[in-house]
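User: hey, got a sec? need Endonuclease Q family protein folded
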Amino acid sequence: MTNGKNDGVLGRYYADLHIHIGRTASGRPVKITGARTLTLANILHEAAHVKGIDLVGVIDSHVPEVLDELERAMDEHGWCEHREGGISTGKVTLLLGSEIEVYDDRCHGPIHVLAFLPTVQAMRAFSAWLGKRVKNVSLSSQRIYASGRELQAAVKEWGGWFIPAHAFTPFKSLYGKGVERSLTEVFDPDQIDAIELGLSADTSMADQIAELHRYPYLTNSDAHSLRKIAREYEQVQLAAPTFAELEKAFRNEDGRTIIANYGLNPKLGKYHRTVCEGCLTPVSPEAERCPACGHHRFIKGVSDRLKELKTAEHGPKRPPYVYQVPLEFIPGLGLKSYEKLLSRFGTEMRVLHEATEEEIAETVGQKLARLIVLARSGALAIEAGGGGKYGKVQEK
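Assistant: Yep! Here you go:
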């Protein structure tokens, strides 16, 4: 938190609302591709003491064993539910979420969505409902055997939020291979609370789609390991770090708002440009075959997909989208230098937002300090990624 307390005075907080659990406390897998170290306890410690994040969305909270683990921790550590939703651990607020896969006859591929519930009781009820409609409620991102609108109605019944996840990635997203032209093919537009940009699009790219102009945009990490937490995040203005306050920020009510989105330059994303499916060589989407290997199948990049869907030139006035290069992307910043930065400044948020270039140079040298400062302002050259391969950062 940059300022503000739970006293009604508006303060600024950092939020990352898309973090997976890799394993339960007993070692059972939840997100199969998630790191074993990505446990509930480790997530909360990393967010509070390493990243400097104030609100954390754990989107595998529907898993019964995770809920059991959470309730034990609440009893053991004295954590409590906010009256306005969310679990206070003292250092960070935990928001209870679930990632679910929707597939019905009107869409052409699986679509991932996020559902958030305000209380443990509400998540318990939702988990029981979900358990009757998925094959294994103890795993992450399971396909639901119900329509998108049925899922939305259930989430709203328990006072939750409904958010399409990583909405533009080529796989398992709303606009990747999901809808042909409009989200109304699958969802009720009046029961969507926000759109997650998802490591592949910025505000101006997303605003090429006119039907999205009514929704706030979220920038979240979709972390599958501890180091990936807060590679994207929001800064929000709230009276307290609670579920209800963040909902007001989505709606720009009573001074609550999203101040800024901090996200990757879309060129750093894994699916920015169209590439050959066989050798990952960048190709024109109009090409019939890859000029390098002759393969005829391509992975369409987000930039090209949005050109197909474009229905608007400009969007509404929005919070700034800041190209925030995560520390792990900085060329030459190894583990020793990273640990030196944390030792001096405490959290990544302080390194990225508060430390001066002189202070950073005293800690890790002038070259790295200059790169970190350039990264803050988006002044680093980017080699675009594609086909599942991240882009690279280079110094101009």
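Quick note: The two ends are 32 Å apart (CA to CA). Let me know if you need anything else on Endonuclease Q family protein.
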